[in-house]
Each structure stands twice: as C-alpha cells, then as structure tokens.
Amino acid sequence: MYLTYWLFDLAVQYEVKVKNMAEGNKPSGESASNLVAKWSAWGPQLQSVLRIVAAFMFIQFGTMKLFAFPAGLPPDGGTAQLMSQVGLAGILETFGGALLFFGLFTRPVAFLLSGMMAVAYFQAHFPQGFWTALNGGVPAVLYCFVWLYFSAAGAGPWSLDAARSRQGTVPARGNL
C-alpha cells in the first residue's frame, strides 16, 4: 500500500514539475534529479520484483510439461516423458524456477537456466528462421538474458540468498 501511494505521489510531483518547466517556471523545492535519485534507490527492490515475476512465469512452462498445468502440451494436452529432453527441460523450469522465485542459489541456478534457454533457442527456434518474432523464440531469448543478468547481479534484497548473507551463512559477494 505504501509503495503504491509513494509511486502515485512521485508521478504527481513529476507531472507538476514538468508542467512548470514547460511554462517556463523554475522548479521549486525538490529538483528533478532528486526524483530520479529517489526512483533509482528502488533499483534493488525492483530487481527482486523482476526475479519473482519472471520466475513465476517461467515455472508455468515447466508445470505445463510435467503436470499438464495450467494446460497440457500441444497437440493432445498431455505431459512430456520425464526422461526426454523436454521432460528434463520441464524439471529444470519447474524446480530451477522455484529456486529463483525464492531467490535461493540464484547465481548458479540462473546461469544453468540461461544456458538451457540458449540451447532451447538454437535447437527449436533458430532453425525456423533468424527473426525471433517470426520463429517463436522471443521467450527463450528473453529468459536467456534475464537469467544471465541474475547470474551476474544476484537475487536482490528480497531473497533467501540475501537473508542467508545477512545471517553470515554465505560468503560475502567479493568472496564468491
């Protein structure tokens, strides 16, 4: 609730300042750079939000393959054979996605899933053509680079990795 109020207030302040500047008035009080600084301070939290939302959506691809939920695999709505390449992808998507959702072992899991999505793109989508919008590879490429980002940046402050680090059970970032 507080975040929603703060974002609304920030948007209103920004709108007023832009209007005043367009009318030639000098901004009063808080400068636009202070607004940018306030918004930039939310970067780590938004990093966690991106991780949570992306992982939640990613898990759905795995549960579709393993449990036919929310829908089964086309064309018959069934599940993948567990020991097939698609079954292995479903396991990684479901359980790796769950680890990323909670932000546990984020860096190695994200690196593994990034590689898996690169393989998925080059095996399934790239042979259909170069352009991702035409070959259906947009999700694979986006997940590849989102997970690659998290493998380098970490999970963010709203994660089990961060909680473990605060308790001193994980080596500091520079020691990884």
Describe the structure.
The protein is an all-alpha fold and 176 residues long. The chain has 2 domains: 1-41; 44-175, no CATH class. 68% of the residues lie in helices and 0% in strands. It has 8 helices and no strands. It has helices at residues 2-22, 32-40, 43-67, 85-102, 106-125, 132-135, 138-153, 160-166. α3 (43-67) packs antiparallel against α4 (85-102). The longest helix has 25 residues, at 43-67. The relative contact order is 0.10. The mean pLDDT is 88.
Number of helices: 8
Report Rg.
21 Å
Overall geometry: globular
Show unreliable segments. Answer: none
Query: Main sheet, how many strands, which sense, barrel?
Result: none
What count of structural domains? 2
How far apart lie the N and C ends?
Answer: 36 Å
Q: Tell me the total number of β-strands.
A: 0
Q: Share of helix among residues?
A: 55-70%
Report the mean per-residue pLDDT as an integer.
Answer: 88
Structural class call reads: mainly alpha
Strand content: under 5%
Order of helices and strands: HHHHHHHH
